[in-house]
Amino acid sequence: MLGPVQTRSVSPVFVGRTEELNSLNEALSRAAAGEPQALLLGGEAGVGKTRLVEEFATAACRQGAVVALGGCVEIGADGLPFAPFSTALRALHRALPAEFAEAAAGQEEELARLLPEMGEGLPARRTGRHDEESLARLFELTARLLERVAAERTVVVALEDLHWADASTRHLLAYLFRTLRTGRLVVLATYRADDIHRRHPLRPLLAELDRLRTVRRIELGRFTRDEVSRQIAGILATEPHPGQVDDIFERSDGNAFFVEELAVCATEGCGTGLTDSLRDLLLVRVEGLPESTQRVARVVAEGGSTVEYRLLAAVSGLAEDDLIEALRAAVNANILSPAPDGDGYRFRHSLVREAVADDLLPGERSRLNRRYAEALDADPTLVPADERVMRLASYWYHAQDPAKALPAVLDASVTARRRHAYAEQLRLLERAMELWDTAPEDIRAALRPVDFTEVYPPCGCDPATTPLRYLDLMAEAAVAGRLGGERERALKITKRALHLLEDDGDPLRAAWFWVQRSHLVQGLARGDGWTELATAEELVRGLPPSEVHAEVLSNFANWSMVHCPGPEAVTAAERAVEYARMVGAREIEMNACLTNAGLAVESGDVEAGLAEMFEILRQTLDDGLTTVASRVYVNLPNSLEAIGRSREAIPILEEGLDYARRFRLSDKEAWIWGNLAESLYSLGRWDQAADAAVRAELVGRSARPRGFHAANRATLALARGELSEAARHLTAARGYFGSHDRAPQHDLPLSALAIGVAAGEGRLLDARAELERVLDTGFSPGTQRYAWPLLLTAATTEADSLGLPVAEQDRSKILDRIREAARPLATNAPVWLAHERWLRAELLRAESADTPDHWSEAVTAFEPLERPYDLARVRHRLAQALLFAPGGAEQPDRDRATELLRLAHAAADHLGARPLADAVTLLAQRARLTLRAAQSPAGDEDPARSLGLTGRERDVLRLVALGRTNRQIAEELFISPKTASVHVSNILAKLTVSGRGEAAAVAHRLGLFPERALHAPVTE
Question: What is residue 835's predicted lDDT score, i.e. its pLDDT?
Fold first, then answer.
């Protein structure tokens, strides 16, 4: 474990806080049992947060826990990116070197962004394109690292002063609090509550964390009079006079730090004449120190949260003996204290540092910052290497020297980007833009493009010889804002850039910014991004091939594939591939190829499109193009699901999950989980589908994958008859997707759900209104996958409402509109053809014109497909048509209907589809049919027949129990593989099991096939 936790408190007695300390100890006990704990500790400045953490950490160490402390570092008004996590991870690395190394194995290069020493001795870092998953990868790695380190040992990570945290630290903490699931881990963060004004950046995070049931928030209040009395007694080592207690309690208002200051002042005789001003109270003891000590205090106050001794010596200008004497006086007076690592000094309390810094004159502040910067320029070893660039940029900026500050700030922005600290990179680039006009011309002329901004043309020529331009800074800042989640600020920057480009005559630059604006308005749910992309496409039209041109076309094609697939999208994708190949932009080429393959599947060239997708997956995996490969793992199974080949999609999705986890692509993982839930639902594995949908919610960070998850859960809830749950998830999904971007792949399923929920709640007119809104818009080519289920839901609603007075008005018009909308939809995939047959039968049912033949066609179409829920529904309707055919049902029809209802009921019961099961039961009761198979005479009972299995299904089950595949079963029984598959699906439904292995186990358990019968030949 770590050594004893260092205390910085004057009072030797820990007073009060019993309830709060019990809460922390309870969290430690739960963590030790394997349940990760997340806690927030808030309170005003000086109320005793640090002291409470010290007491808790000491107690945790006594119980064998490893405690790692990290504090947010303030340099002037700046926070170092990831500073508290870097400090805490460094402490863990020192305390548990073997466990840490094992947990980080294989990910050292990425984790070096938080802990630079982990990258020592590794080959030069690979360069790659930054994307919106980069930060998520780093966050996921950090979470899993902590879980692994805490797998066998209780670990406490305490992060102090969250009110100073940089944006990247805040985002990482939020991610940890949302995603930690295993490990003996406590994550505790403290913040100063009185600093959290309405616009403080920590305020939204606290609100978000308050909504998480896994996060506990502890508010630390002020001391009572009795507690103040005990604290004073501990400081003075004697019982205080009641009058003194009353005076200090009144003046301190129970604030622990103020109590200490007032008590010490009273002891030292400096209490008389103190004003009630907080600043004066904090400064009174500093002003009582020797002048040299006050001077050192002012230097330390401006240097940051902690100042290294060698740096302090260089800046103070004092002889070493004089400096040591001044420091000793400050430490003895409890103004300064040695830093925890023993290599510097810090103020014992940040309030005192702020008061001393606020007391500096304007010229004095800039002069001190200049001296800090000059000292660091002269000797970079004065501070840790991973802090030098950021601190130098801050010192030069606050020194108000644009000539020095601009290059330093740009260097720091590159460092922030390499650490995926995009929010800090954006802040630094905004400072660079602020400094640009005031920096001398010769300084600006010597600058070069600072980093790699996707495909943006840095200067339109060789970046090594052409000076940096202001627009280049804006491009860097726009990408940093998008990648860091600061889309609002990034959008403002792109708008300013486009305004500057209006008279510039540079179409490539303008097109690039229009593409950025498209991404941003979509991310902010301000629009669908089409206007921006169309503008970009118009700007590059006719220009020679370039990366920007290829990127514009690739984005144009991808947008069209999602929103309105058609010939224009195909043309754009093909041109993007051609241009990308010309300029050697491999990643853009592969992205455009993938879009083109997806368009091929949607247009009907299914096998060619799928083959192209498989080839792209192979190539991108070989080339290490993780962004494109992860997109293939989303799109390829999605295309398979679209054409009804759900079972083929499952292994690809499982492989994709492993890939996304390995590269920490959290949003891609969420999409894959959502696709997996969809395919599992189709296959009738609903419990597994529900689990997959929940996993999608847990890992997804962006709105759209979370909207997809909510839609999946709404679909499942609706099928199970849980209307209120379905409505709740539908509302959530619409909130995630927004109302400005109605992409068919999201909008049509939500509309189908809205119609289904409205119908379930008896709101027929609302269901019709939703349908007419969709029909007024129409279906884009290639959207048949979503259009067929929506039209079917609407037709079923109309058929179910037949005979209701409210349904008669406009019924004919609605049915005609459904037929007209269905006419151009593609049916070249078996699943789409099956839906066409079903829709036709439902429309006839809505007109009381359906016959058993219509429903037989639908059943026949669905039987070869692995869609047990859909098959059960059409079987139910066929049984209904047989039983209530004009002229009455003959006995053969009743027998056939009985078998259909038994199959439908078995499937509905297995799936938990309560509305379908109830409808089947009600129909059987009306027709006086028994859903259970008739029992054989005693002593002659066949267990297979008691389960409702036909003779052919009995033969199939025997071969399943022997481990035969569908093809082998087909060969042995002289039937087609598809028919064998249908029999297997029926058997699984009747036995209420989810797989062949379970079916074989049931057969063995019930003794359906004695050993000799298992291998007996089949007889007709």
Answer: 97
Report the C-alpha gap between 212 and 469 in whole angstroms.
45
Task: Round to whole Å and give the CA distance between 433 and 438.
Answer: 10
How far is Cα of residue 501 from the mean position of the Cα atoms in its chain? 35
- Tokens at residue 203, please? 């305020």
Alpha-carbon distance values, 44 to 50, 163, 345, 351 (Å): 11, 11, 24, 11
758 vs 762: CA distance, rounded Å: 6
- CA–CA separation, 727 and 757 (whole Å): 7
The three-state secondary structure class of 240 is coil
In contact, 138 and 188? CB cutoff 8 Å:
no
For residues 157-172, average pLDDT: 84
Question: For residue 344, which phi and psi values (nearest 5 degrees)?
Answer: 180, -170
Provide the CB-side half-sphere exposure for 921 (13 A, CA).
10
What does the alpha-carbon distance between residue 757 and residue 767 come to, in Å, rounded to a whole number? 8
The token duo for 903 is: 């199959």
Pairwise CA distance, residues 693 & 688, whole Å: 9
CA 426 to chain centre: 21
Looking at the DSSP assignment, which residues form a beta bridge with residue 216? Answer: 39
Interacting residues of 846 by C-beta distance below 8 A, sequence separation 6+: 795, 798, 799, 802, 811, 815
Range with top average pLDDT, 175-184, 278-287, 359-368, 723-732: 723-732
pLDDT-derived band of residue 759, with 50, 70 and 90 as boundaries?
Answer: very high
Strand duo 215-219 + 185-192: pairing = unpaired
Provide the token pair at 440: 């001398």
pLDDT tens for 928-943 read 888 875 444 444 455 6
Residue 975 pLDDT greater than 80, yes or no: no
In this structure, what token pair is assigned to residue 42? 């808030």
Identify the DSSP state of 553.
H
pLDDT in tens, 702-751: 778 888 899 999 999 999 999 999 999 999 999 888 777 778 888 999 99
Query: Where is 192: in which H helix or E strand?
Result: strand 185-192
Nearest-CA neighbor of 719 among 691, 692, 757, 662? 757
The crossing angle, in degrees rounded to 10, of helices 852-862 and 868-883 is 160
518 vs 988: CA distance, rounded Å:
49
Alpha carbon distance 451, 415 (integer Å)? 10
Token digits for 168? 């990247």
Q: pLDDT over 70 for what percent of the chain?
A: 90
Token duo for residue 30: 């739960």
pTM of the model: 0.71
* 426, 201 Cβ separation under 8 angstroms: no
Cα separations in angstroms, 725 against 148, 191, 719: 36, 37, 11
| pLDDT tens per residue across span 835-888 | 999 999 999 999 999 999 999 999 999 999 989 999 999 999 999 999 988 777
What confidence tens digit (pLDDT) does each residue in 150-161 have? 888 888 998 888
**Residue that the structure tokens 């202001």 belong to:** 470
Q: Tokens standing for 362?
A: 């304007």
3-class SS of residue 159: strand
Strands 344-347 and 336-338: antiparallel
Taking the C-alpha atoms of residue 305 and residue 431, their distance in angstroms, rounded to an integer, is 22
Whole-angstrom Cα distance, residue 26 to residue 518?
A: 49
Q: Supply 618's token pair.
A: 């192979």
Q: How far apart are CA 289 and CA 336, in angstroms?
A: 12
Q: What is the 3-state secondary structure (H, E, C) of 456-499?
A: CCCCCCCCCCCCCCHHHHHHHHHHHHHHCCCHHHHHHHHHHHHH
User: Which two tokens mark 770?
Assistant: 């939703």
- Contact predicate 988/982, CB 8 Å: no
For residues 1002 and 990, give the distance between their C-alpha atoms in angstroms, rounded to a whole number.
11
